[in-house]
Design a protein that fits this description.
Number of strands: 22
Shape: elongated
Distance between the termini: 140 Å
Radius of gyration: 46 Å
CATH topology of the largest domain: Nucleotidyltransferase, domain 5
Structural class: alpha+beta
Helix content: 25-40%
Strand order of the largest sheet: 17-18-19-22-21-20
Number of domains: 4
Oligomer: single chain
CATH architecture of the largest domain: 2-Layer Sandwich
Length: 696
């Protein structure tokens, strides 16, 4: 980096007449006089003066910065540069030190915010440029003079009207050092209003006057009142409490004010002892200055609402991830319509649907179900779905899909779920080694903590009509099928254009989760943990008790069997009258298949129908077969009585028709004699009568 006009230099260890800790601004290397000009700005301390027109008024005045010209021999300066005794300053400022906070701002637009100003900032700059313009045009002649400051002072006195010598020198040097920019001559507007109000002791009322009350009506806010305002706000603020309500409470309890009518009959505040108190505008302003409007909104509306609806966006949530399954969010919702019962078609409680979504691709990676409530088993079922091949998962429900329709497979190591069932130990694998490495439990009612999942849940349109509910024509299992199809639909139809990074524009052919998942998976950007189907069954599915009989396996009155079961020889080891109890793994939403560990091998069993029927009738949920078992058990005593009554009815009808008893035979000793001639003749006659033919 070279040295040119305006370059800021330092001498860390000091060098000749250059001090350490001081910033010097390179101005010009004069070859004719063999010297180098540097400029040092001195910020003089503020001074206090008493304004003569108002008794007792004290003002703190910030004096004009002083520009000091530093000259050194050219050979010494170049030696210091070559020996690194003189170095570039780490920060090369674009504006003078007193204007540094304004760097990068559009100062030309400041005047647009001051339409009623007596004098524009642009006009002040133009006046100073007019004064220094002759010096700038011959700056080499000025700097080449024996005493440049003396020449500049002479020019300032010659101006009409006469200009302040210190300000002219400062403007001339700043204009040259900072790229001849108008902004270098700007007024330090960031310091306006920054003076200490407590130093003003004349008691004059500041601020806007109260209409009809006079310009000096009211009280200034001292540091003591400011402290009481802030303490009062902290004490009485809270969720749902507005600033006006806090002010009213504070005026009575903190400042001790009372109310009385004024000359117009309007009530106004007063203090019985004449102590000062703030107006509502002062109260609101000082609270905002101390705490900020953001903190006020959080106290009144709550941090969740402010974060979600009011605060500006901090960027997309997807910026936290780069790979598939790096972070997965889970959430549950209830189906809007209520299913019907399998037996009596009664209206049942809602079906809870738990879905999991990959943050990177936006793909829904899993779905799980629970009946009547959001339970941990639904989250485990969702993880089972997430872990296995989706073609296999859908086949368990009788749904046939192709692999590209739902390509995700494998579990994630970082999971976020709702507080409650989704965050309990019951929602995770029974095998500790297969539980997620990181578990995130977001705070309650904080939707943005899992915003990716919340935004993809089906939305319900709210209304203000009388309470009502939707009664479905579908069973629990049929609703489950629909929600699986909804997942497949969403993965192919959700717009994820904003997730496609520039390096993937030419690879992702359609902006849907499936397409982005496929591309990222092919590129190896996938953090999914692969789990075998057998391990997934043992880790995530519910265990129930089954009854093993010689004819097969019974679960809640339903028979299960398969060729694989027969091949194990288990049924051969069970006697006809023997009953054995075992544990089986079931998918609660669909019990078309169950799994049993036999001889350390996982065997899949199929639900069997008593009659030849279509395969679709065998797809039922665990709740539905339990409901049928309860119904059958409740029916058994009544049917037993029905059997007895039917038999009695038949006996009575027979007796009325024949005059004989239903059981009227008598027991005789010995064998029946059916070989006599009379017996053979009666046998022939009876056979002829039964056949309906006549005797020849």
């Amino acid at each position: 980096m070279g040295i040119r006009i305006g370059t800021q230099l330092v001498a860390p260890g000091g060098f000749k007449l250059l001090e350490s800790g001081v910033t010097y601004y390179f101005l010009w290397s004069d070859s004719s006089r063999e010297r180098v000009h540097l400029v040092q700005f001195v910020m003089r301390p503020p001074k206090t003066r008493r304004k003569p027109t108002r008794e007792g008024r004290v003002l703190t005045e910030t004096p004009t910065p002083l520009a000091m010209l530093v000259a050194m021999r050219r050979s010494q300066f170049e030696l210091g540069v070559e020996s690194s005794a003189i170095l570039h300053h780490d920060h090369q400022a674009a504006l003078p030190p007193w204007l540094e906070p304004l760097s990068g701002k559009n100062l030309a637009s400041i005047d647009l915010l001051r339409p009623k100003a007596k004098k524009k900032h642009a006009q002040r700059i133009d006046d100073m440029l007019e004064a220094i313009y002759p010096l700038v045009m011959k700056y080499k002649e000025v700097l080449g003079a024996e005493n440049p400051d003396k020449l500049i002072n002479k020019h300032a006195r010659a101006c009409s009207p006469v200009k302040n010598e210190t300000r002219v020198r400062l403007a001339f040097y700043c204009y040259l050092l900072f790229g001849r920019s108008r902004n270098a001559l700007h007024y330090p507007i960031h310091k306006i209003g920054g003076w200490d109000r407590d130093l003003q002791i004349d008691g004059k009322k500041r601020g806007r006057k109260r209409e009809g009350k006079g310009v000096n009506y009211g009280h200034n806010v001292s540091s003591v009142i400011h402290k009481r305002i802030v303490e009062s706000y902290r004490k009485y603020s809270g969720l749902g409490i507005s600033m006006t309500e806090i002010y009213r409470i504070s005026m009575s309890k903190t400042f001790g004010c009372r109310e009385r009518p004024d000359r117009d009959g309007l009530l106004s505040y007063y203090h019985p002892d004449g102590e000062p108190f703030p107006t509502y505008g002062q109260f609101d302003c000082h609270v905002a200055d101390e705490l900020g409007r953001g903190e006020i909104q959080k106290r009144r509306l709550g941090p969740n609402l402010v974060r979600g609806k009011i605060a500006p966006s901090l960027g997309p949530f997807t910026r936290a991830v780069a790979n598939l399954m790096e972070r997965v969010e889970a959430d549950g919702y209830y189906c809007g319509e209520r299913p019907i019962g399998l037996v009596e078609k009664s209206t049942l409680p809602h079906l809870c649907v738990v879905r999991k979504r990959d943050v990177a691709s936006g793909a829904l990676t899993a779905v799980g179900f629970s009946f009547a409530a959001e339970r941990a088993s639904a989250y485990r079922m969702a993880t089972f779905c997430e872990a296995i091949d989706k073609v296999k998962f859908c086949s368990l429900f009788g749904i046939a899909i192709e692999a590209w329709e739902w390509p995700s497979i494998g579990t994630g190591a970082h999971g976020t779920a709702d507080r409650g069932p989704g965050s309990t130990d019951g929602a995770f694998s029974a095998d500790l080694e297969m539980q997620p490495v990181f578990r995130v439990m977001p705070p309650s009612y904080a939707g943005q903590s899992k915003a990716v999942m919340e935004s993809s849940n089906p939305k319900k349109i709210k209304n203000q009509e009388a309470p009502s509910h939707l009664r479905s024509e579908k069973s629990v299992f049929q609703l489950s099928l629909r929600e699986i199809r909804r997942v497949i639909l969403d993965n192919e139809s959700i717009d994820i254009t904003d997730r496609i990074t520039p390096d993937l524009w030419d690879k992702v052919r359609k902006p849907c989760p499936n397409a982005l998942w496929t591309v990222l998976d092919e590129l190896g950007r996938n953090d999914a943990v692969l789990v075998t189907f057998e391990d997934a069954v043992r880790a995530y599915l519910d265990q129930v008790e089954i009854v093993v009989k010689a004819g097969g396996i019974d679960l809640h009155g339903q028979r299960y069997d398969s060729r694989a079961l027969r091949a194990t020889g288990l049924l051969d080891r069970v006697a006809v009258s023997q009953v054995m109890r075992m544990k089986a793994y079931v998918l609660e939403a669909c019990v078309r298949h169950i799994w049993v560990d036999i001889d350390n091998q996982l065997i899949e069993l199929d639900l069997q129908a008593s009659l030849r029927a279509g395969d679709e009738i065998l797809f039922m949920s665990l709740n539905e077969i339990k409901q049928r078992e309860i119904e059958m058990r409740a029916m058994a005593p009544a049917f037993l009585e029905h059997r007895h009554a039917t038999a009695s009815k038949a006996h009575r009808a027979y007796e009325e028709e024949t005059g004989l008893k239903w059981n009227s035979a008598s027991r005789h000793s010995g064998s029946a004699k059916s070989g006599t001639s009379i017996a053979r003749q009666e046998t022939a006659e009876s056979a002829l009568a039964m056949s309906g033919r006549k005797r020849a």
